[in-house]
Design the sequence.
């Protein structure tokens, strides 16, 4: 899983049936805390499915790869094809200030 | 998934039989999330008839392989959506 910050949303009316009905969020990957304890964006951005309602600016964890579909409710998730999904909205971490 | 722009199409006469009837497009990624994948272009399976210049969302890796319903298809990237609009940080969402 990766720690990231929601920076936007992607809309597409033409989408694969296998993508699922979830929202697509733009999420910037965050690096380790620097000297003053803040995490900065690494410049890498991923599009992740979201069904828990994460909003812009919020810190989230993102599940990767073939495990991403496990974030969603079974058995509907069996048909979902996605390599990234928002797993939880983070309140805080002990390794650095957000 | 990653956000990218379709820049072209790939045709091939001689190809793996499992690639028959699959349309392949060339996508220039706007961002990457895996350093190991950090290449300038990506060839992805496209079922949505994406055209050059359109922005798309591409699923990579094993989930991208299942798009054709057969895990033995030798691909690892699929176009999942054609983007209408991106809203967010102006610096990363042109």
Sequence:
């Amino acid at each position: 899983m990766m720690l990231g910050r929601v920076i936007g949303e992607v809309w597409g009316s033409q989408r694969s049936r296998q993508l699922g009905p979830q929202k697509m969020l733009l999420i910037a990957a965050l690096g380790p805390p620097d000297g003053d304890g803040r995490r900065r964006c690494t410049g890498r951005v991923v599009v992740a499915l979201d069904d828990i309602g994460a909003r812009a600016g919020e810190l989230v964890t993102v599940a990767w790869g073939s495990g991403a579909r496990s974030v969603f409710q079974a058995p509907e998730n069996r048909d979902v094809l996605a390599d990234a999904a928002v797993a939880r909205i983070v309140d805080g971490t002990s390794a650095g200030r957000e | 998934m990653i956000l990218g722009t379709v820049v072209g199409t790939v045709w091939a006469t001689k190809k793996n039989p499992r690639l028959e009837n699959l349309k392949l497009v060339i996508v220039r990624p706007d961002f990457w999330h895996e350093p190991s994948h950090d290449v300038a272009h990506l060839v992805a399976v496209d079922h949505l008839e994406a055209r050059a210049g359109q922005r798309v969302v591409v699923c990579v890796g094993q989930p991208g392989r299942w798009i054709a319903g057969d895990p033995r298809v030798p691909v690892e990237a699929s176009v999942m959506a054609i983007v209408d609009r991106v809203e967010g940080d102006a610096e990363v969402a042109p």
Q: What stands out?
A: Chain B has one domain: 2-82. Residues 23 and 49 of chain B are 8 Å apart (CA to CA).
